[in-house]
Amino acid sequence: MPKRDLTSEVQRGLGPREGKVSEKKNYHMSMDEFRHYGRSVVDWIADYYEKIESFPVLSRVEPGQIRDLLPSEPPINGDSFESILKDVDDIIVQGLTHWQSPNFFAYFPANSSGPAILGELLAAGLGVQGMLWSTSPACTELETHVLDWLVDMLGLPEKFTSKTAGGGVIQDSASSAALCALLAARERATNHDTNAHGCDGRLVAYASSQTHSSIEKAVKIAGLGARNLRIIDVDDTFAMSSDALARQITEDRQAGRLPCFVCATAGTTSSNALDPLPEIGRICREEGIWLHVDGAMSGTAALCPEYRYIHDGMELADSYCFNPHKWMFTNFDCDCFYVADRKVLIQTLSILPEYLRNKATDQGAVFDYRDWHVPLGRRFRALKLWFVLRYYGVNGLQHHIRRHVELAQRFAGWVKRSEDFELMAPAPLNLICFRHKNGDSFNQNLLDTLNQSGTLFLTHTILNDKFVLRICIGQTNTGERHVLQAWKTIVETAEGLTKTGST
Amino acid sequence: MPKRDLTSEVQRGLGPREGKVSEKKNYHMSMDEFRHYGRSVVDWIADYYEKIESFPVLSRVEPGQIRDLLPSEPPINGDSFESILKDVDDIIVQGLTHWQSPNFFAYFPANSSGPAILGELLAAGLGVQGMLWSTSPACTELETHVLDWLVDMLGLPEKFTSKTAGGGVIQDSASSAALCALLAARERATNHDTNAHGCDGRLVAYASSQTHSSIEKAVKIAGLGARNLRIIDVDDTFAMSSDALARQITEDRQAGRLPCFVCATAGTTSSNALDPLPEIGRICREEGIWLHVDGAMSGTAALCPEYRYIHDGMELADSYCFNPHKWMFTNFDCDCFYVADRKVLIQTLSILPEYLRNKATDQGAVFDYRDWHVPLGRRFRALKLWFVLRYYGVNGLQHHIRRHVELAQRFAGWVKRSEDFELMAPAPLNLICFRHKNGDSFNQNLLDTLNQSGTLFLTHTILNDKFVLRICIGQTNTGERHVLQAWKTIVETAEGLTKTGST
After folding, report:
1. C-alpha–C-alpha distance, residues A502 and A237, integer Å
2. What is the mean pLDDT of chain B?
3. Is B223's CB within 8 Å of A65's CB?
4. Which of A67, A110, A197 sits opposite B141 (nearest CB)?
5. pLDDT at A4
6. Given this chain, do its domains B6-95 and B160-357 carry the same CATH topology?
7. Hey, are the CB atoms on A124 and B121 less than 8 Å from each other?
């Protein structure tokens, strides 16, 4: 094949838009430039954290406002790194909702930390793929190792470690973990026939009315159909009724259905309810149903022995996940997903084309994590988790989790002692569900007013058909000052709305 | 609720293992420390790239070797950042396969660049969630915007832009994109009944024998079953036979099945074969079947007008993906996934629990990207892609893609002119499939010897039942010197093996 004549191609109109191949030999950022701009970005981030409380927590932009500031045409010629970083300030920052602000109390925390950010930086710099053990052995082995550590640190059952028939893997999110758990459950229940022949319409899964929406999504994706997800009633603490679960399973069996999967939650998203794992686990064992436990945010609390009760009954679970990217100072994405029987999971998700075959895999001596989740490629996410565990140590992590729970409990105490506000759900850990006694529209108005103020960001839920405010305390830098100020702002804003006759 | 007495709890044995809550008030890395250690990591990465050619490309560790160097117990007390970074050098680096080495020619490139790494760093520092528009509007809008830019830059059909009924989203990988495409196809074919009631066993999907393994994985996950994936024959260029596809569809219709999904490939993983999109697209249109086109690596070539022919027929596709994290200097993960009809995709994957409701979503004025893929949470991945597009510009990207193709074509020329080696597949772009004429075991031996040498890393495939070597040229810093040296090493190693009588 002759050497291509690019100059001639450009002359024939095949070249870049500007009409000429640039004379520049290399458009890459040199390592000297990388050292320089790397420092700029590190400093930018430090500056950002130092002034983060000066931004409105919830972005105030309108739909389309950011896009209007961006050129409609892609850049033909490269820009300087300085100009790009300037546009971050001038265009992007106003469109951010500041999840790392200590005044962010919405949804769940997605906290981060210095060691995590630098672990992510290093992973990006190394740019290795961990799809197979052989594609970067350290990527797989460090992941297996720190996930084993976490079994120990959280007091989880030994069966979830790689030393047994189980093991852990990092997923991007609890949604993906739940999907993988459901798929493994589906295959175990049908002896891997569904993977071969497809769903046959008999499979049924179970969750409570308070279970995270990702379970409904997973049931749809996996081909079971949303109508085959049974929504089990909850008790007055918003925890799944194990009696109702048992009744529904019996009913389904009698109708010739095949119950395959139950998702129980250790700390629901809506109100932090704790499903009764021992009772649910006993039912699942008796019925041969896969029990997945979702401890996405609250699982981290088990770092502290005094909160480990939230996992009581876990020895009866087939799989479990929690998210260091929520409340353990590890930037998203980092969901730790454990199975008690890794063979079922691997057999469910394994595909081995010729171009991925290698000796280590053929000999069965290693984990190939692409068989543990949906994607093939994978980043070196264990690095940031390792950095966090090493930098904080068990003591450091326990200290901060205890501090967050203590602050949340103080907030709950203020609500209880208030004449205007009431607690709307048990608050075992760091999430408080409360509302003003003035009713739904007042609370919606209060929420909107608070969030528009920019001084804090809360979100809401519906409990017993009532509009309820949620305050979730778990951001890295949230301290006493921020929680005190939040309560003061809430009380004063409610008083202001009451005075102006708002409803 | 009374204020918790943590000191008393510790005294009652509920505290951390060391027996006492540390006196330390704060275990976090301060911003001054972050500035300092951030520079250390930036410099570490620059140093790594400067010496990357001194490492064996393929890691030489044995299974378990890295874990043996890690303490079996998790750290109780935090370590200094210096000691963690030292362990990266002492423990981790030997267990890396150096994907960013210019001598990495295996699998596919997973190239990166300074602007991408710094974009990832900034995204980690900001730590925002882009699950909803409202959770960080800039995260959604920048993503929509740069994906629109890329439609323009690659010369893709206008229907994939957000200005029409379509739009693009960043997925973690082409595997996940294919799954989402299949799910949308499944729902379109069944009028969203499968999401409600589950798979009914009639659905059939189509791919070629050369299509990426992720399609089989997706078909299993989505509940269709692997037996309902029809593997269509390929022609002598390893491209899907559209005649065979048409015949199989007719046969399935006659058997009462419901064909719903075809995956065609613009550049197969195994040999870079180009499926005939115009013919396949015409069949899919006539049959009302969803056509997904996978351009994972090769799609990037369409940045250059002279290679855009690989996408001829794309106007007939329902969805398309390519991976800037393969060959466009953007570190993993960054797959750009486009649909022509976003409503179908959104209706397929949308779940809206109360705690995620907000005005912008209710008004339908915005994209909420969590409805475009499996996970709920999402990082600000658009940032690194924007950094790359801005820093290189169209001209810079075109320059480097052309250079890679030119180097690959020169390599192909050397193979063609060699008496000992032969080309085993057409080589339209940057992947060359070749082998020594001495047969399978010689080539396996040659591959093992080359990879054990540490000076380069190649992988293999099987084509027409023959063991074939693959050399894929697309690493950021791969230049003429590396490709010349690779060919020289391959030739000399083969000569050495021939002389020693190896077969």
Report:
1. 31
2. 94
3. no
4. A67
5. 38
6. no
7. yes
pLDDT at B113: 98
Residues A233-291: tens digit of each pLDDT: 999 999 999 999 999 999 999 999 999 999 999 999 999 999 999 999 999 999 999 99
Locate the domains of chain A by residue range: 6-95, 116-387, 395-499
Residue that has been written with the tokens 């990388």 in this structure: A34
Neighbour-count burial of B438, counting CB atoms closer than 10 A to its CB (0-12 exposed, 13-18 middle, 19+ buried): middle
Among candidate residues B206, B185, B285, B203, the one with its CA nearest the CA of residue B248? B206
The CA distance from B201 to B65, in Å, is 46
pLDDT tens-digit map of A385-395 = 999 999 999 99
The torsion angles phi and psi of A404, rounded to 5 degrees, stand at -65, -45
**Shortest Cα distance, chain B CAs vs residue A277, angstroms:** 22
Residue A121 has pLDDT above 90, yes or no: yes
Give residue A24's pLDDT band: very low, low, confident or very high (50, 70, 90).
low
Which CATH class for the B6-95 domain?
mainly alpha
User: Does pLDDT of A353 surpass 80?
Assistant: no
CATH number of A116-387: 3.40.640.10
Q: Please state, in angstroms and rounded to a whole number, the distance separating the CA atoms of residues A498 and A109.
A: 30
User: In chain B, which residues have their Cβ closer than 8 Å to the Cβ of A430?
Assistant: none
Query: What is the rounded distance in angstroms from the CA atom of residue B488 to the CA atom of residue B482?
Result: 10
The β-bridge relationship of strands A335-339 and A319-322 is: antiparallel
pLDDT value of residue B121:
98
User: CA of B95: how far to CAs of A134, B55, B57, B92, B364, in Å?
Assistant: 9, 11, 11, 5, 49
Query: Distance, in angstroms, between A207 CA and closest chain B CA?
Result: 14
Among residues A364, A340, A387, the alpha carbon closest in space to that of A167 is found at A340
CB < 8 Å to A212, chain B: 353
- DSSP structural state of residue B34: H
| pLDDT of B14 over the 50 cut | no
Query: Which of A77, A113, A213 shows the shortest C-beta gap to B28?
Result: A113
Chain B environment of A63 (Cβ under 8 Å): 133, 137, 360, 365-366
Task: Count Cβ–Cβ pairs < 8 Å, chain A vs chain B.
Answer: 609
Residue B25 has pLDDT above 80, yes or no: no
Name the 3-class secondary structure at B190: coil
Q: What is the pLDDT of residue A233?
A: 97
Give kind and range of the element (H or E) at residue A136: none
Of residues A48, A133, A201, nearest to B198 (C-beta): A201
For domain A395-499, give the CATH superfamily: Aspartate Aminotransferase, domain 1 (3.90.1150.10)
Cβ-in-10-Å burial (0-12, 13-18, 19+) of B7 comes to exposed
Measured distance CA(A453)–CA(A446) in Å, rounded: 11
pLDDT reading at B47 higher than 90: yes
CA distance B459 to B446: 11
Strand, helix or coil at A206? strand
- Answer whether A198 sits within 8 Å of B355, measured CB to CB: no
For chain A, first and last CA: distance in Å?
A: 79
Residues in chain B closer than 8 A to A38 (CB atoms)? 38-39, 42-43, 45-46, 118, 121
| Token pair in block for residue A311 | 């996992």
Listed in order, strand segments (DSSP E) in A172-270 are 203-208, 229-232, 258-265
User: Could you give the CA distance from residue A274 to residue B181 in angstroms, rounded to a whole number?
Assistant: 36
Residue B441: how many CB atoms within 10 A of its CB? 11
Please give the Cα distance from A115 to A383 (Å, whole number): 10
For the record, the structure tokens of B449 come out as 């010897």
Cβ–Cβ gap A393/B29 under 8 Å: no
Any idea which architecture B160-357 has in CATH? 3-Layer(aba) Sandwich (3.40)
Shortest CA distance to B345 belongs to which of B377, B323, B322, B367?
A: B367
Element (H, E) at A283: helix A277-287
